[in-house]
Write a structure and sequence with these properties.
With about 450 residues, the chain is α+β, with helices and mostly antiparallel strands. The protein is built from 16 helices and 11 strands. The strands form 4 sheets. The protein has a 4-stranded antiparallel beta sheet. Strands 7-8-11 form a 3-stranded antiparallel beta sheet, with no helix packed on it. The N terminus is likely disordered.
């Protein structure tokens, strides 16, 4: 056999294995691990008289590694035990506190319930697929499914590189497309509605229908993106500027109106409506971050809430409120702001002591207000303005919606102003705005 003989390629499900001629015989190299110290992959060579013999040796080796790896590399613990070791011994400390909280939540609610009795070496692609399918069946959002997929893949790839397992079982699995997830959620919603109607009619139901009728689709029953109407914004402004009145009946039976009463710094929510800031950014914003002459604000800090943990990453109860760097590098920015937003800040600043440069929204003595305090103030404003309950993020959505209309559908500019990671992310969130704008644009269009 000459050294110029063509190269054979033996491909299994996971890793191509090159089989080549080497001085009159065939040789194959198989990647068997990763040397963390040397930062390189480790290979094992196989030789034979021809390609058939080499292939047989490679397959025999791979099968032996799958069936039972070397005892010193065995992990006899369950997959759940090793996964938790990975989370708290390897991953903890590499992420921001809030990000680790979300990562831990994905493991606890999306992965742990479906890996009972599975070992690290015994985990197959079908087991990983069952985890993903189970979450899909419960109606979890595309974002949650993607995070689950990424965490599973990250864990198994780390174990493969360290030589604990030979193959990453996630290699054989593809993430669902977003359209597929949305279609599946719609099917689940329709199944539940049909089951509820059948239950209300008193008809005989199958076990599956009983389960569907009583189910609450995860991450699917949340309200759609909430955008405040012109009338709701007007009522907000009225309460902020003129306060609210309380009507009640006296002991003598006469109607009484007291007021006006004023909420604490309600105009701050009008400022958020005019800037689209995130809640954490707004809580950390100080007057020293505002340049009234250049009409800009600088995002330097972000307030986050995370679980209180010990040195090993395990929760100890309670929460920690901290000021950290902005959410992403793109979030840290100098933003142009409108005259309306600056006028609100000027009015608020007039109520502070002279030369005050501390937190814009604050508690007693100028101390930073917590998220709970801000939510309570927002709930009070909604209540007295007679606006249905909605989250603070609705102010950001409303800002983006109005900006989208004001810029004639400029998704790129809107993305820059709300500081999303990319334009596609913005368009996915506000797809209904884009569709509505296009419909109105083309409705009266003619040539």
């Amino acid at each position: 056999m000459s050294t110029t003989e063509r190269v054979f390629v033996l491909a299994d499900l996971y890793d191509p294995i090159a089989v080549s001629a080497d001085h009159g015989r065939c040789k194959a190299r198989v990647r068997i691990g990763y040397d963390e110290a040397a930062k390189r992959y480790v290979y094992k060579s196989f030789y034979g008289a021809d390609a058939v013999e080499v292939r047989a040796k490679v397959y025999e080796y791979i099968q032996s590694r799958i069936d039972g790896q070397e005892e010193e590399k065995r992990v006899d613990a369950l997959l759940s035990t090793d996964f938790e070791r990975y989370l708290y011994s390897e991953k903890y400390g590499t992420l921001k506190a809030g990000s680790f909280d979300r990562c831990e939540g994905i493991y606890q609610y999306q992965i742990l319930p479906y890996i009972a009795g599975i070992t690290v070496q015994g985990c197959k692609p079908s087991d990983c697929k069952k985890v993903m399918d189970a979450n899909l069946a419960q109606g979890y959002s595309y974002s949650t499914l993607l995070k689950t997929y990424q965490l599973l893949n990250e864990y198994f790839e780390r174990r493969r590189k360290s030589g604990v397992i030979l193959l990453n079982p996630m290699d054989g699995i593809k993430m669902y497309s977003k359209d597929f997830v949305l279609t599946r959620q719609q099917q689940l919603r329709e199944d539940r509605e049909r089951a509820i109607k059948k239950e209300e009619a008193g008809a005989k139901m199958t076990p599956a229908e009983i389960n569907a009728a009583s189910s609450r689709l995860k991450m699917e029953d949340k309200d759609e993106i909430r955008i405040l109407s012109d009338d709701e914004i007007a009522r907000m402004r009225e309460i902020c500027e003129n306060g609210y009145f309380v009507d009640y009946t006296s002991r003598s039976g006469n109607p009484v109106r007291s007021g006006p009463h004023f909420l604490s710094q309600p105009e701050f929510f009008l400022f958020l409506l005019n800037t689209g800031l995130r809640r954490g950014e707004a809580l950390a914003l100080k007057y020293s971050d505002v340049d009234f002459e250049r009409k800009t604000i600088t995002i330097r800090r972000n307030v986050t809430i995370s679980k209180r943990r010990d040195a090993d990453g395990h929760t100890t109860g309670g929460i920690i409120v901290t000021e950290t760097t902005p959410k992403t590098k793109k979030s840290a920015a100098v933003l142009p702001v409108s005259d309306a937003a600056l006028e609100i800040l000027r009015d608020m600043h007039c109520d502070e002591d002279e030369n005050y440069q501390g937190y814009i929204v604050h508690g007693n003595g100028g101390c930073r207000l917590g998220e709970t305090g801000l939510r309570k103030r927002w709930a009070a404003l909604l209540r007295w303005a007679n606006i249905p309950p909605c989250g603070l993020h609705s102010l950001r959505h409303t800002f983006a919606s109005r900006l989208y209309a004001a810029t004639n559908g400029d998704s790129k500019l809107v993305s820059e102003m709300v500081r999303h990671s990319n334009v596609a992310f913005t368009e996915n969130i506000y797809v209904h705005l884009i569709e509505s704008y296009r419909e109105n644009l083309l409705k009266d269009f003619s040539i």
